[in-house]
Amino acid sequence: MMTRHQRCGMAALAALLVVAAASTPRALEGQASDRVPLFLAIPESFPDVDGRVVLLREPGRDIVLLRADDATPETLSVALRLLRRLNASTPRRERQGQMVPVTGYALRSTLEPAERERLDTALSRLKERPLAQVGSLGSGRSMPFADSDR
Fold first, then answer.
1. pLDDT (average), residues 30-39
2. How far apart are alpha carbons 110 and 85 in whole angstroms?
């Protein structure tokens, strides 16, 4: 049974999906039809959801929602790997989004230096972005991200 706070968090994330759907561009021309745009976001106030990171899969895009205090190359790497697995194994819903909170993880191996640098650079760029409205979550930072392994 969900608490009131969990229901409010779920409602906030659902609203984020609706706002994101209306305010972000559709898949770019020339992209493979099975690939959707990917965005990274760090809201100033993370939703009341039990998760270190939240993956939002919706019909026209994927969003990796990171906590400001846990936006590390390791956390992003785990989130991206899980998102790839979900996209490969679970069909995308045509009209409805999907929220996947990642409550914890254990690293089985260290990141390769090149991959660590790539993710660290992306996170640095994200953290340098100006504060803006991040859907219904309020202010935060977000940016498109090209995941070369997708």
1. 64
2. 19
User: Is residue 149 included in any domain, yes or no?
Assistant: no
Q: Are strands 139-144 and 132-133 parallel, antiparallel or unpaired?
A: antiparallel
DSSP 49: -
Q: Under a CB-based contact definition with an 8 Å cutoff, are residues 17 and 97 in contact?
A: yes
Q: Following DSSP, what letter does each residue of 97-139 receive, concatenated?
A: -EEEEE-----SSPPPHHHHHHHHHHHHHHHHSPPEE-GGG-E
What is the pLDDT confidence band of residue 150, given thresholds at 50, 70 and 90? low
Percentage of residues in the chain having pLDDT higher than 90? 50
Q: What is the mean pLDDT of the chain?
A: 79
Q: Which of 60, 59, 61, 100 is nearest to 81 (CA)?
A: 100
Residues 6+ apart with CB under 8 A from 81: none
Instruction: Identify whether 49 is part of a domain.
Output: yes
Residue corresponding to tokens 């990141």: 111
Range of the domain at 99: 4-144
CA distances from 117 to 37, 73, 82, 108, 114 (A): 22, 8, 20, 19, 5
Helix ranges (DSSP H) in 2-112 = 4-23, 73-89
